[in-house]
Amino acid sequence: MAVHQVAALGFGRAHEVYERARPGYPQGVLELLSATGALAPGRLVLDVAAGTGKLTRQLSPTGAAVVAVEPLASMREALVGTPLVVAGTAEALPLRPGCADLVTVAQAFHWFQPVPALAEMVRVLRPGGWLVLVWNERDESVPWVKAFGDVIERHAGGRPYTRTGDPGALLRAAGLEAVANTRLDHHLESTRAGVVERAASTSYVAALPADRRDAALAEVAALVEGFAEPFPFPHVTDVHLGRVPAA
Predict the structure, then answer these.
(1) Residues 6+ apart with CB under 8 A from 144
(2) Contact yes or no for 22/83 (Cβ under 8 A)
(3) CB distance 10 to 96 below 8 Å
(4) Using alpha carbons only, how large is the chain's radius of gyration in Å?
(5) What is the spatial distance between Cα 91 and Cα 131, in angstroms, rounded to a whole number?
(6) Beta strands 125-138 and 235-243: pairing type?
(7) DSSP H helical segments within 70-179, as ranges?
């Protein structure tokens, strides 16, 4: 299965800034996964579309065996410190059926073809295994954060993907049970340069021609000009969890 053209171009260009600028995930995500029993020593976890390994590196210290699945070579090269990295897409995972206790997808499901991707992830999970979809979201109830999103989307001509409705409903439609949705606070601090890099790490900004990309980043810089450093960059983390029915 092909990777979305904008994702391939943008993340191919921006993998280094992505690693610097993107936040990890709150400890509450790991606590939720540990509570299922699927994230524990000896369990097999697949981190699908692992990117530069933001979540992968948080999963590994739990004692689980973690396999990072990532389609882009530039991203795989940035997955330093991850024991096992394989090439593959969510819609065509290079793994045998029923091998995994947990599949994680962080900051990536919106790029997938949801129906075949979910079918494929369910295929590689054992009966009773768990699937989790995670997103760090900017808290756009804060005016300057809302303006940040407006700026980058205006320069890019909108997002190149459509969020696929209610993730919980999609998990249920894929046959998963015990579906739960949780929102966690994610308190981050940043600098003026960090906010600009966060914009530069966005695939559809990185994919722009240089003059349009520079104009977008200059406008983002103007949003936070004069902010005393460091300052809060408000985020929340959305977690959607479901279990494959036991045999």
Answers:
(1) 223, 224
(2) no
(3) no
(4) 18
(5) 15
(6) antiparallel
(7) 73-77, 114-124, 143-156, 167-173
Domains with residue ranges and CATH for the chain: 5-243 (3.40.50.150)
Question: Using one digit for the tens of pLDDT, what is the confidence trace for 8-35?
Answer: 555 666 678 888 888 999 999 999 999 9
User: What's the confidence (pLDDT) of residue 247?
Assistant: 74
Classified as helix, coil or strand, 96 is: coil
Q: Which residue, chain included where needed, has tokens 């559809």?
A: 204
Calpha distance 195→191 (Å, rounded): 6
Amino acid at residue number 216 = A
For residue 137, what is the enclosing H or E element? strand 125-138
Three-state SS for 53-79 is CCCHHHHHHHCCEEEEECCCHHHHHCC
CA distance from start to end of the chain: 30
Interatomic CA distance for residues 137 and 65, integer angstroms: 28
Tens digits of residue pLDDT in 109-162? 988 999 999 999 999 999 999 999 999 999 999 999 999 999 999 988 877 666
